[in-house]
Amino acid sequence: MNPRWAKALESALGKERVAVDPASRLLYARDMMSGGLLEEKARHEPHLPQAVCRPASVSHIRGILAVARRHGVPVVPFGAGSGVSGGTNPVRGGIMLDLKSFTRLGPIEERGGRFYVTAESGILGQHLERDLNARGFTLGHFPSSILCATVGGYLACRSAGQLSSKYGKIEDMTDAVEVVLASGEVVPFGGRLKKFPGLRPEDVFIGSEGCLGVFTRARFRVFPLPPATLYRGLSFRRVEDALTAVRQIMQSGLRPAVVRLYDPVDSLLLKHGYKKKNRSRSRSKTGGRADWHYPLLLSRPSLVQKLVERASSEALLILGFEGDAELAREMERQALRHAATLRAKDLGPEPGQHWHDHRYSVSFKMPRLFANGCYVDTIETATTWDNLQALYDGMREALMRRVLVLAHFSHAYPEGCSIYFTVVGKCRGPEEDLKTYGEIWHDAMEVCLGLGATISHHHGIGLLKAKFLPRELGGAMPLFRDIKKGLDPWNILNPGKMGLGS
Amino acid sequence: MKEHEQATALCSFCPKLCRYSCPVADADRNEAVTPWGKMTAMKRVEDKELPMTPETMGLAYKCLNCRASEFACEHANPVSPALDAYRVRAFKADMAPAAVAPFCEKFRRHNNPYGRDLLPVLQRRFPPAQFAGADAHTVYFPGCVEIATDIATTEKTLRLLDLPLYPEPIQCCGYPLFAAGDWQDFSELAEVNRHALNRYDRIVTGAPQCLYTMETLYRSAGHRVRARFQHVSEYLTSPGAPSLTRRGLGEVAYHDPCYLGRYRKTYEEPRRLIERVSGKPPIEFLLNREEGYCCGGGGLLPVSYPETADAITKTRVAQFRETGAELLVTSCPTCVERFRKFGVEAKSLVDYLVDADETKRKSLRRR
Predict the structure, then answer these.
(1) Smallest CA–CA distance from A132 into chain B, residue
(2) Number of alpha carbons in the 13 Å side-chain half-sphere of residue B149
(3) pLDDT higher than 70, residue B359
(4) What pLDDT is recorded for position A290?
(5) How many pairs of residues across A and B have Cβ atoms under 8 Å apart?
């Protein structure tokens, strides 16, 4: 049955921009959070929105928000639904506000020797990068979701790309944002928030996951395409040695574009991958064919983990350097010098090139695993260098009992580094899987909080980590709640997320 | 359906990694029409979690059959064939988009989508001697789109290739019926055509969609044609093909038709031919070869969802304008028709090659 406010939406936007049919509602009901996929397998009814709106202008958005305020209806800003934390799941129903009609891309502007571009929030990351490349530029932002995430999604989740060590995270490359508030007021580029004039809108809204406002466009710093890119693979006998090398490299002032350190299990998979590189470029052509060996291997994850780790303790480090050819060569030379002091074995450029050629492939593994009796999820955390080894050990200990754990250290900075854990388990029954999944996340978050690490480096908080955010923010959580109350006193924007409760 | 169920399951667990490649998703900007959305909806219908309604089944028709998503997928998950199978189900249940049933009705009257017999059109234009006789081994099959919208290309092709015309009353391969989900009528037409086609050793056509239909889809309907099929670009680059005169011409951009490119992997032959007559390779679209963007004419989309099809063509036209070329050349009559509809100077490959050749001869005569 159509909600009573559907007519008001249709008059604000036009009938063709409002969908209330069952298929549309179901297809906007969840993002790509692994827990959501497990719920789907368990045939749990998802929270459905009552309507899906596709506004094409800021005035359309203001019209939707006016209807929402008048009728007390939740509004969930929506990019492409590729999030992995349940950030766009309409837990209280309402209106999905799909921003994919916002796709205009401005010209490259030069200001003070730097280059900028203005992009609307509905542009897909891949399309943005492709169009920038055609003009000789890059955003320098390569998250593994680049194929399926929008610019608005990048901003909402404070996303990080694979070259973040050089270019920074999305907040580092964002010069200005335009946001529509729940009141319908538009905060334009360079504008101030009336209620919080001391806060920069970029600092308030980037990472707010649609709870504080709706991104309509942003101005990003962009970079001329690098004339040279060099890759290097290095093998270390122990993870600890490799971490020391990465820390030395980052703290020496060198700025590699790519820093990816794979722990022994992940290294084994990566090495297996680049040894058969000629085969792997050809598409598998297997479609949904059963991969019987996955569940078999994962039936006793801790045993498999021990066997693999006994076979090899080697850690593989991929380094990449971009920019002026001479400078890149010199940075590479200096980095190799640091690695040599820790007895690293130089594997040449091949592993790095292989990584580059397959840098988005890992996401394709997810559907295969899910379709073949397994589940997989990723947990990204970060901490300072002095705490990194303890975090790595603590997380593994907490998770390995239930699932196979792979990890890589990426997004390295002078201050610290992110660890990206991939957990893979065998499905044992829909309800049992959901219970295990909940326990995995609970244990992982407890370890992070216990060690003072962050519970999210770039996947956002959403629904998945909502209950843990108040503990991470501590005394800053009331401030966050005050900002929410000040900007959205009707609590219509994405309610129930980020620990903002009711 | 089992195979398609596996395909829909795989898509439904995927974080929409191919969506950037799908022209329909690009045009409609709606989750429901991404390859993920369409496949997940079909899975949900199969699982009885979504009702089978015209609105839901209409999603199976929001596909160009362009295979862009399959090429973007590392598993090459067959999205188009799965959606085609659901079209058959929708058609049987009378749940295809509203325009589809009348379209098929019209098709059945003359065995083509144009509402008139097409053999007389050819007979009026060409003398009987140009039609294949009993002793012909190789024939040229122009296909209904070329006859109805670009018969000048048929004329030029016959001149260039020196081949006789396919002389049968049915001048359509039946692809529109297939894309409509009308499998029964498609299969019957395929059987009739197979008998006629089997009189020849080789069928040459300028329509890659017909080529795929007659060579592959007929086989999947149980009507294997024993003749060998060739696209004109393949024929003209094979040994013994007529020679072409070289002459410097203006800048042309080459558009890869989906059924010649992704379906047949014929990317280089048309480019080589263009280079042979113009002395330089064609200008490339930003999206070319495997990444080529559909013209909007596939999958019966111009019939089932004309607004979406038009939006896609406009996008490709904008991409053409960005190349800076004066002329668009492609190897498919459907693509030519789509581009001309939106004001682009578009030519079929043969049209371009013959014009280039004749311009050269005229200039030689003048000297």
Answers:
(1) B286
(2) 21
(3) no
(4) 47
(5) 125
Question: Is residue B75 within 8 angstroms of chain A, CB to CB?
Answer: yes
pLDDT tens digits for B344-356?
999 999 999 998 7
Confidence of residue B249 (pLDDT cuts 50, 70, 90): low
Q: What is the end-to-end Cα distance of chain A in Å, rounded?
A: 26
Q: Cα distance from A83 to chain B (closest Cα, Å)? A: 8
Q: What is the pTM assigned to this prediction?
A: 0.95
Chain A's closest residue to B5, CA to CA, is: A288
Instruction: Name residue, tokens 């502007």.
Output: A109
| Of the candidates A281, A278, A288, A354, the residue with the CA atom closest to the CA atom of residue A318 | A354
pLDDT of res. B200:
98
Residue numbers in chain A where pLDDT is lower than 70? 1, 272-293, 502
Buried b (16+ CB within 10 A) or exposed e, A444-474: bbebbeebebebbbbbbbbbbbbebbbebbe
Asked whether the beta carbons of residue B7 and residue A287 sit closer than 8 angstroms, the reply is yes
pLDDT at B280 over 60: yes
pLDDT for residue A431 = 96
Edge-first strand listing for the sheet containing A95-98: A18-19, A51-53, A95-98, A75-78
* Distance, CA of B50 to CA of A221 (rounded, Å): 44
Chain A: give the shortest CA distance to residue B209, in Å. Answer: 23
CB contact under 8 A, A23 and B72: no
Which amino acid is present at A223? F
Q: Are strands B138-141 and A416-426 parallel, antiparallel or unpaired?
A: unpaired
pLDDT (0 to 100) of residue B358: 62
Q: CA of A344, closest CA in chain B: separation in Å?
A: 33
- Averaged pLDDT for residues B296-323: 98
Query: Any chain A CB within 8 A of the CB of B265?
Result: no
Please report residues of A whose CB lies closer than 8 A to that of B56.
21-23
Contact check, Cβ <8 Å, B50/A289: no
DSSP annotation of B266: -
Give percent of chain B with pLDDT exceeding 90.
92
ipTM: 0.95
What contacts B164, CB < 8 A, 6 or more positions away?
Answer: B130, B131, B132, B133, B136, B138, B139, B140, B158
Sheet of strand B202-205, all strands in order from the earlier edge strand to the far edge: B138-141, B202-205, B228-231
Rounded to a whole number, what is the distance in Å from the CA of B28 to chain A's nearest CA?
Answer: 9
